[in-house]
Protein backbone atom coordinates (compact mmCIF):
# COMPACT_ATOMS: atom_id res chain seq x y z
CA UNK A 1 0.00 0.00 0.00
CA UNK A 2 1.59 3.26 -1.15
CA UNK A 3 2.21 5.31 2.02
CA UNK A 4 2.95 8.91 2.98
CA UNK A 5 4.56 9.46 6.38
CA UNK A 6 4.22 12.93 7.89
CA UNK A 7 6.37 13.95 10.85
CA UNK A 8 6.56 17.09 12.95
CA UNK A 9 9.27 15.70 15.25
CA UNK A 10 8.95 16.66 18.91
CA UNK A 11 7.35 20.00 18.09
CA UNK A 12 3.81 21.18 17.50
CA UNK A 13 2.96 22.00 13.89
CA UNK A 14 -0.84 21.83 13.74
CA UNK A 15 -0.92 23.88 10.55
CA UNK A 16 0.89 21.09 8.68
CA UNK A 17 -1.44 18.42 10.07
CA UNK A 18 -4.49 20.55 9.19
CA UNK A 19 -3.27 21.18 5.64
CA UNK A 20 -2.22 17.62 4.80
CA UNK A 21 -5.64 16.30 5.86
CA UNK A 22 -7.72 18.73 3.78
CA UNK A 23 -9.81 17.28 0.99
CA UNK A 24 -7.67 19.03 -1.66
CA UNK A 25 -4.40 17.66 -0.25
CA UNK A 26 -5.82 14.15 0.14
CA UNK A 27 -7.14 14.26 -3.44
CA UNK A 28 -3.66 15.30 -4.64
CA UNK A 29 -2.10 12.37 -2.78
CA UNK A 30 -4.74 9.95 -4.06
CA UNK A 31 -4.16 11.17 -7.64
CA UNK A 32 -0.51 10.13 -7.22
CA UNK A 33 -1.51 6.67 -6.04
CA UNK A 34 -1.02 7.09 -2.29
CA UNK A 35 -3.50 5.09 -0.22
CA UNK A 36 -2.24 5.50 3.34
CA UNK A 37 -1.35 8.58 5.40
CA UNK A 38 0.58 8.07 8.65
CA UNK A 39 0.80 11.19 10.82
CA UNK A 40 3.24 11.76 13.68
CA UNK A 41 1.72 14.85 15.31
CA UNK A 42 4.07 15.45 18.25
CA UNK A 43 2.80 17.90 20.87
CA UNK A 44 0.16 19.31 18.55
CA UNK A 45 -3.44 19.74 19.57
CA UNK A 46 -4.71 17.76 16.55
CA UNK A 47 -4.83 13.98 16.49
CA UNK A 48 -6.81 12.98 13.38
CA UNK A 49 -8.87 9.82 13.61
CA UNK A 50 -9.01 6.94 11.14
CA UNK A 51 -12.23 8.29 9.63
CA UNK A 52 -11.15 11.95 9.44
CA UNK A 53 -10.12 11.87 5.77
CA UNK A 54 -12.17 10.54 2.93
CA UNK A 55 -10.41 8.61 0.17
CA UNK A 56 -7.32 7.61 2.15
CA UNK A 57 -6.47 5.42 5.15
CA UNK A 58 -5.29 7.58 8.08
CA UNK A 59 -3.25 6.58 11.12
CA UNK A 60 -2.03 9.11 13.67
CA UNK A 61 0.13 9.05 16.78
CA UNK A 62 1.99 11.54 18.93
CA UNK A 63 5.34 9.89 19.71
CA UNK A 64 7.14 6.57 19.43
CA UNK A 65 10.55 5.50 20.66
CA UNK A 66 11.59 5.39 17.00
CA UNK A 67 9.99 6.41 13.72
CA UNK A 68 12.58 4.49 11.69
CA UNK A 69 10.07 1.77 10.74
CA UNK A 70 7.49 4.37 9.68
CA UNK A 71 10.09 6.00 7.43
CA UNK A 72 11.18 2.62 6.07
CA UNK A 73 7.60 1.77 5.08
CA UNK A 74 6.94 5.20 3.52
CA UNK A 75 7.03 5.91 -0.18
CA UNK A 76 7.12 9.65 0.57
CA UNK A 77 8.10 11.49 3.75
CA UNK A 78 6.63 14.90 4.48
CA UNK A 79 8.42 16.59 7.34
CA UNK A 80 8.85 19.82 9.19
CA UNK A 81 12.26 21.34 8.46
CA UNK A 82 13.98 20.27 11.66
CA UNK A 83 17.54 19.13 10.98
CA UNK A 84 17.08 15.80 12.80
CA UNK A 85 13.93 14.87 10.91
CA UNK A 86 15.47 15.88 7.57
CA UNK A 87 18.63 13.86 8.25
CA UNK A 88 16.64 10.79 9.31
CA UNK A 89 14.47 10.85 6.17
CA UNK A 90 17.40 11.51 3.85
CA UNK A 91 19.43 8.81 5.59
CA UNK A 92 16.57 6.38 5.00
CA UNK A 93 16.80 7.18 1.29
CA UNK A 94 13.20 8.35 1.06
CA UNK A 95 11.83 11.11 -1.17
CA UNK A 96 11.40 14.08 1.12
CA UNK A 97 9.05 17.05 0.98
CA UNK A 98 9.84 19.55 3.72
CA UNK A 99 7.14 21.93 4.89
CA UNK A 100 8.77 25.02 6.38
CA UNK A 101 7.01 26.60 9.33
CA UNK A 102 7.26 30.19 8.12
CA UNK A 103 5.72 31.45 11.36
CA UNK A 104 8.87 30.67 13.36
CA UNK A 105 11.09 33.58 14.27
CA UNK A 106 14.53 33.71 12.59
CA UNK A 107 13.36 31.18 10.05
CA UNK A 108 16.45 28.97 10.10
CA UNK A 109 14.34 26.10 8.78
CA UNK A 110 13.98 27.91 5.47
CA UNK A 111 17.75 28.24 5.11
CA UNK A 112 18.24 24.51 5.70
CA UNK A 113 15.44 23.54 3.31
CA UNK A 114 16.69 25.91 0.60
CA UNK A 115 20.23 24.52 0.76
CA UNK A 116 19.12 20.88 0.68
CA UNK A 117 16.78 21.76 -2.20
CA UNK A 118 19.56 23.55 -4.08
CA UNK A 119 21.59 20.34 -3.77
CA UNK A 120 18.55 18.37 -5.11
CA UNK A 121 18.08 16.31 -1.95
CA UNK A 122 14.52 17.42 -1.19
CA UNK A 123 11.57 19.52 -2.24
CA UNK A 124 10.14 22.16 0.06
CA UNK A 125 7.12 24.37 0.47
CA UNK A 126 5.08 26.14 3.13
CA UNK A 127 1.66 25.17 4.44
CA UNK A 128 0.04 27.66 2.09
CA UNK A 129 1.68 26.04 -0.96
CA UNK A 130 1.50 22.39 0.21
CA UNK A 131 -1.45 21.25 -1.89
CA UNK A 132 -0.10 22.84 -5.08
CA UNK A 133 3.31 21.28 -4.40
CA UNK A 134 1.70 17.85 -3.96
CA UNK A 135 -0.01 18.28 -7.33
CA UNK A 136 3.10 19.40 -9.24
CA UNK A 137 6.09 17.81 -7.46
CA UNK A 138 8.58 15.76 -9.45
CA UNK A 139 10.26 13.33 -7.08
CA UNK A 140 12.41 11.96 -9.91
CA UNK A 141 14.71 14.99 -9.71
CA UNK A 142 15.85 14.17 -6.17
CA UNK A 143 19.39 12.99 -5.56
CA UNK A 144 20.43 10.77 -2.63
CA UNK A 145 22.07 12.35 0.39
CA UNK A 146 24.97 10.04 1.14
CA UNK A 147 24.71 8.73 4.72
CA UNK A 148 27.49 7.90 7.13
CA UNK A 149 29.30 11.22 7.04
CA UNK A 150 28.10 13.14 10.12
CA UNK A 151 31.01 15.60 9.94
CA UNK A 152 30.01 16.52 6.39
CA UNK A 153 26.42 17.05 7.53
CA UNK A 154 27.61 19.19 10.47
CA UNK A 155 29.70 21.28 8.07
CA UNK A 156 26.74 21.53 5.71
CA UNK A 157 24.51 22.74 8.55
CA UNK A 158 27.10 25.34 9.53
CA UNK A 159 27.19 26.66 5.96
CA UNK A 160 23.41 26.55 5.53
CA UNK A 161 22.85 28.45 8.75
CA UNK A 162 25.64 30.95 8.13
CA UNK A 163 27.86 29.83 11.02
CA UNK A 164 30.95 29.58 8.79
UniProtKB/TrEMBL annotation:
GO terms for biological process: dolichol-linked oligosaccharide biosynthetic process. It comes from the Eukaryota. It is an enzyme of class 2 (transferase). GO terms for cellular component: endoplasmic reticulum. Keywords: Endoplasmic reticulum, Glycosyltransferase, Transferase. Its main location: endoplasmic reticulum. One of its GO terms (molecular function) is N-acetylglucosaminyldiphosphodolichol N-acetylglucosaminyltransferase activity. Gene3D superfamilies: Glycogen Phosphorylase B. The keyword Signal does not apply. PANTHER family: GLYCOSYL TRANSFERASE-RELATED, N-ACETYLGLUCOSAMINYLDIPHOSPHODOLICHOL N-ACETYLGLUCOSAMINYLTRANSFERASE. Belongs to the glycosyltransferase 28 family. This is UDP-N-acetylglucosamine transferase subunit ALG13. It comes from Betta splendens (Siamese fighting fish).
Amino acid sequence: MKTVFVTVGTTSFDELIENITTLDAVQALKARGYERLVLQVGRGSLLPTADSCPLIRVEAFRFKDSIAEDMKQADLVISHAGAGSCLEALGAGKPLLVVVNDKLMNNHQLELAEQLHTDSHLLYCTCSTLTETLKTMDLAILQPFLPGQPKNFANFLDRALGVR
